[in-house]
Design a protein that fits this description.
The structure is a homodimer of 222-residue chains. Chain A is 75% helix and 0% strand. By secondary structure, chain A is mainly alpha-helical. The first copy, chain A, has two domains: 60 residues, Arc Repressor Mutant, subunit A; 147 residues, Tetracycline Repressor, domain 2 (Orthogonal Bundle), CATH 1.10.357. At the A-B interface, helix 6, helix 7, helix 8, helix 9 and helix 10 of A face helix 7, helix 8, helix 9, helix 10 and helix 11 of B. Chain A binds a DNA duplex (18 and 18 nucleotides) through helix 1 and helix 3.
DNA sequence: GTCTATAATGAGATAGAC
DNA sequence: GTCTATCTCATTATAGAC
């Protein structure tokens, strides 16, 4: 009897987890495509193949499911980026990391998660980029603060790589790098359209190469 | 009689125009702050001090009022940017315009409209920047194509300024400049926060100076 | 041109059966 | 944990009086 009951619980828990995952995946996709206000609980229910009441049972409210979607992958992505930086640092035995390596260490984890880890990650990264583009007055932006530690770590390495540069120049340079990165992750197609197909930010290696070429020069400007 | 009637018409037309302007201003502000889906006709009616039915009378639907808001200022802003470029060109007597002048000619009209021409223009520019950040799949992005001619004209001047550079490098460089500009106009505060107040994109002259320093170097990268 | 009133639908959220 | 049914309120949009 005890084992029966516990097995039923296990099955239910498993089913529950699968349901929650389906709901979160659908929410993630819809928020990435249409934003918070452009997505209704009915849309989520339809895409996830469940009922509205079930979503409320599992998550409580629209705000909470949004938070859950954002929080679900943040630790992994954060650690991925910190790991990327760490690898570059240990590879250079604690000497300052060259600028082009630093730029790649910053961009590659984002671009790869965006393009190579399936639709779930792609939607999550696009959602993050969307949040980063909101003005500071938005309530959502506090969500973005999770990645503060990542940016601080990279800023620190940029300072080590450029010991003679003014701090302000490093802040501006890193800011320019981030604005480009955010735009990559939003899939805006600005570059593709203006170059009439000659250039595209959809090839990761080319994108990183162009950033290295352009931004190492910018960072070393007097 | 005839003059009476025509004066009444005039008065009504004037009142109508004022009402329309009040409604458009309110819509512009709300769309810039909360986006299309985050803004309701009720919000617009409340902020403009009119009735919902009046908005429908003047504009027909939410989609149409959005279009009207976007179209209202586009010609003027477009001509302002083209004029800025034209001034730089004639000032150099049709010789290639130096890179830093070109960068300023691109940024200054946007930044000034954003900061110095009142809340209406500020909201409009923020709205544009928001549209530019939407992914290409969005229906709204076609609105942004109005400014294609501006970008083409600037790209052309960049090519003249850098006769030895590959076309692809020019496209990438101009793209990087645009991603920075878009982020300025969105008021994201990323730079202010990461630099802990040491740097800010809210000072136009400093912003242009930093862009000139950084991007002229980037553009001339081999 | 502007108002009141209301239709028609969609939204977020909950109750209670199974 | 999942379902049906429903509540309450906000939403877009229209009809008709003045």
């Amino acid at each position: 009897m005890a084992s029966d009951s516990s097995e039923i619980v296990k099955t239910d828990q498993k089913r529950s987890l699968e349901t929650k995952k389906r709901i979160l995946d659908a929410t993630e996709q819809l928020f990435a495509q249409h934003g918070f206000y452009g997505t209704s609980m009915r849309d989520i229910a339809a895409l996830s193949g469940s009922r509205i009441s079930l979503i409320y049972y599992h998550f409580g409210s629209k705000d909470k499911i949004f938070q859950t979607v954002v929080d679900r992958r943040s630790e992994e992505h954060k650690n991925h980026m910190l790991g990327s930086l760490h690898n570059a640092v240990v590879l250079h035995e604690d000497a300052p990391v060259p600028l082009d390596i630093l730029i790649e260490a910053y961009l590659r984890p984002c671009l790869e998660r965006h393009q190579c880890h399936g639709p779930g990650w792609r939607n999550y990264i696009r959602l993050l980029a969307h949040l980063a583009s909101e003005s500071a007055s938005s309530d959502y932006q506090k969500t973005f603060f999770t990645y503060d530690v990542v940016n601080k770590a990279f800023l620190n390495e940029f300072k080590r790589a450029l010991p003679d540069a003014k701090d302000s120049h490093i802040y501006w340079g890193f800011y320019f790098l981030q604005t480009a990165n955010i735009n990559f992750l939003l899939d805006t197609q600005i570059l593709d359209m203006q170059s009439e197909g000659q250039c595209s930010a959809s090839d990761i290696d080319i994108t990183i190469e162009q950033c290295q070429r352009f931004f190492t020069r910018g960072f070393t400007a007097p």
